Amino acid sequence: MYDDILVPTDGSETAEAAVDQAVDLAEKYGATVHALYVVDVDATNLALGTEQVERVRRGDLDEMPEVKSKADEATGYVADVASERGIAVEEHVTAGSPARAIRKFVEDNDVDLVVMGSHGRSGLSRVVLGSVAEKVLRRTRLPVLVVDVHGDHVE
């Protein structure tokens, strides 16, 4: 049923809440887990200069130790949890708007399921802050399991 499961991660507690669910499903179905870290170029555009943003877009993180370290730590957490259960993991790093980059990864790869965390916000806070999980859920044509930070399934 599921051969390839995508877990988008930014290394936050919210993202980590989804990892156990993804690993459980991967174990059940013999699936590969794909850990995806997206460098949010819109958020980093002000902190980084134009030249560094272009490096991130090209995937050239070797000269950006802080960004590379954060990406490695986030995807490494997924790999560590999965490897404890004997699950194969592929780590990926890309740049862009997170929801758009996740959808592009899904389109370009043979992903069967996306498992991601959410803060479970509602009302005005969700409208003002936006929700990557909601955008992925609404604009992706495959199953998306959303796990809130407290461990409850949202959708």
UniProtKB/TrEMBL annotation:
Where's the UspA domain? 1-147
What the entry lists under Pfam families is as follows: Usp
InterPro entries xref list: Rossmann-like_a/b/a_fold, Universal_stress_UspA, UspA
Coiled-coil regions listed in the entry: none
Q: Which PANTHER family match?
A: STRESS RESPONSE PROTEIN NHAX, UNIVERSAL STRESS PROTEIN UP12
The record's comment on protein family reads: Belongs to the universal stress protein A family.
In Swiss-Prot or TrEMBL terms, this protein is called Universal stress protein
Q: Which organism is it from?
A: Halobacterium bonnevillei
